[in-house]
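Query structure, 405 C-alpha cells:
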C-alpha cells in the first residue's frame, strides 16, 4: 500500500496549524476537506495576476481566464466520463445543484406523482423536494434503511411505481458512510420511467465516478469536499434533459436575446449559469482535480480503507463506544456515541486536545430520529490523515470520557 499521507502531507499547510495550543488533528473532511497548495496558489494567482470577468471581455486577460475557467469544465467531462461539456453545469455546491433540480423539474410533476428519497438523506436532498411537493402536489416517499444502515433494496423496489417520477438518493452517507447501490437503483428507476438523481457529495472523494456506467440522469457534488474551493459545485445532467428543462435563475450569461417583451436563452451549459460565477473557485478547482487524478482512486480507496479499519479497531476498544451503523460497503466515516457522555460535551473536550471532529445531527435530523438519537460524533478520515491522528483521537476521547463520565 502506498502511504499517501507521507506523499502529500507537505502540500497541506493547514496540517501545520494548531488548535487550542495543540497540533491540529483534522478529522472533519466530510464537512470540508483541507486544500493543497496548488489550489491555494491558483486562487491567489487569479486575484493577484489574473482578475477579470469571464465570457464577457474579449481583451487578452479576459480570454485567458475564460479559457482557464472552461478548462475545468473539460477536465470534469473526463473526470465523470460525461458525453460532452454541455452536460457539466457549474453551481455553488451540492445544495445549489439539488435546489436547481428540485425547481427546474417541476414540469415533470403533477398532483399525485411521487418523488422517492431515502432515510439516509442530507437535508439538502429532503427540503428542496418538500418545497417541490408543495408547489406541484407531488408526494414525497421515503425508502427505509435496515438495522446496519444499508439502504433496504426490497423497500426501494416496493416503493418504486409508475407514479414515481423522480428518485433522488444519496450515493454515500455523510453520517453512516453507507455506499448505496447507485447503478442498480438507477436501472430500476428507469424501468418505471422515473428520473434518477445521485447526491454524490461524499462519493466523488472515494471512487472514480463514471456517470455513464452508473446510468444516472443527474449527479451533483461540491468542489470543497474534493480538496477544492468552497462556493463551487457541479451538476452533471444528460444533455437532452438539460435541454428541455427551463432555466433556474435569470440574468447575465444565461441569455441569448433580451427584449422587454421576451428573452431567449443561451445554449447549454450556460443556460443554467446566470451572473458572474465563482471564477477563482472554478479555476482553482482544476488544481484539485489534477491533485486527485495524480494520486488515482485505487490508491485513495486502498489508503482510506486501511485508515477506516485501523480507526474502527482502535475506537471499538474504547469502553462504552457505540458505532452508529455498520453498512456492508462503506466510506471512511466513523460515527459514534459514548455511553453516559453527551456528544457535545465530548467534542468540546477533545477540541482542547487539538482534535477536530464533528458533532450534532450532521444535517440529517430525520436519520438521527430514525436511529433514536439526537446527536452523534463523527470522525471522517482521508488521505492526509494517518494512524497517529487516530491515536490522538483515541487518547483525547479517553481523557474526555474519564473527566466527563
Ligand atoms: C451527502 C451530502 N449531500 C449534500 C451536502 C451539502 O453539500 P454543500 O453544503 O457543499 O452544498 C453534503 C455536505 O455535507 C453532504 O455530505
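Result returned for the query:
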Amino acid at each position: 500500500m502506498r502511504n499517501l499521507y507521507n506523499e502529500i502531507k507537505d502540500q497541506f499547510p493547514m496540517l501545520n496549524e494548531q488548535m487550542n495550543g495543540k497540533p491540529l488533528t483534522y478529522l472533519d473532511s466530510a464537512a470540508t476537506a483541507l486544500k493543497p497548495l496548488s489550489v491555494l496558489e491558483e486562487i491567489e494567482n487569479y486575484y493577484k495576476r489574473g482578475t477579470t470577468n469571464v465570457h464577457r471581455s474579449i481583451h487578452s486577460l479576459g480570454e485567458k481566464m475564460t479559457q482557464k475557467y472552461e478548462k475545468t469544465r473539460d477536465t470534469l467531462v473526463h473526470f465523470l466520463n460525461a458525453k460532452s461539456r454541455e452536460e457539466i453545469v457549474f453551481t455553488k455546491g451540492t445544495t445549489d445543484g439539488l435546489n436547481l433540480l428540485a425547481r427546474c423539474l417541476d414540469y415533470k410533476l403533477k398532483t399525485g406523482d411521487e418523488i422517492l428519497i431515502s432515510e439516509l438523506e442530507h437535508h439538502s436532498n429532503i427540503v428542496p423536494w418538500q418545497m417541490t411537493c408543495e408547489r406541484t402536489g407531488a408526494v414525497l416517499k421515503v425508502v427505509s434503511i435496515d438495522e446496519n444502515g444499508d439502504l433496504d433494496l426490497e423497500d426501494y423496489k416496493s416503493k418504486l411505481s409508475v407514479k414515481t417520477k423522480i428518485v433522488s438518493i444519496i450515493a454515500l452517507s455523510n453520517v453512516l458512510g453507507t455506499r448505496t447501490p447507485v447503478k442498480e437503483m438507477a436501472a430500476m428507476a428507469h424501468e418505471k420511467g422515473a428520473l434518477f438523481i445521485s447526491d454524490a457529495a461524499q462519493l466523488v472523494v472515494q471512487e472514480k465516478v463514471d456517470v455513464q456506467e452508473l446510468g444516472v440522469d443527474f449527479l451533483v457534488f461540491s468542489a470543497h469536499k474534493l480538496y477544492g474551493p468552497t462556493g463551487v459545485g457541479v451538476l452533471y445532467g444528460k444533455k437532452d434533459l438539460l435541454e428541455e428543462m427551463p432555466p433556474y435563475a435569470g440574468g447575465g450569461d444565461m441569455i441569448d436575446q433580451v427584449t422587454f417583451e421576451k428573452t431567449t436563452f443561451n445554449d447549454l451549459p450556460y443556460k443554467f449559469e446566470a451572473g458572474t460565477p465563482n471564477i477563482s473557485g472554478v479555476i482553482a478547482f482544476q488544481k484539485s482535480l489534477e491533485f486527485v487524478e495524480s494520486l488515482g482512486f485505487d490508491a485513495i480507496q486502498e489508503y482510506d480503507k486501511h485508515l477506516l479499519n485501523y480507526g474502527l479497531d482502535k475506537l471499538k476498544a474504547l469502553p462504552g463506544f457505540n458505532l452508529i451503523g455498520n453498512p456492508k460497503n462503506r466510506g471512511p466515516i466513523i460515527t459514534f456515541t459514548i455511553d453516559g457522555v453527551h456528544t457535545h460535551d465530548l467534542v468540546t473536550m477533545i477540541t482542547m486536545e487539538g482534535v477536530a471532529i464533528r458533532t450534532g445531527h450532521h444535517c440529517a435530523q430525520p436519520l438521527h430520529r430514525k436511529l433514536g438519537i439526537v446527536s452523534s460524533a463523527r470522525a471522517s478520515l482521508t488521505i492526509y490523515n494517518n494512524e497517529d491522528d487516530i491515536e490522538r483521537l483515541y487518547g483525547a476521547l479517553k481523557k474526555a470520557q474519564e473527566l466527563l463520565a
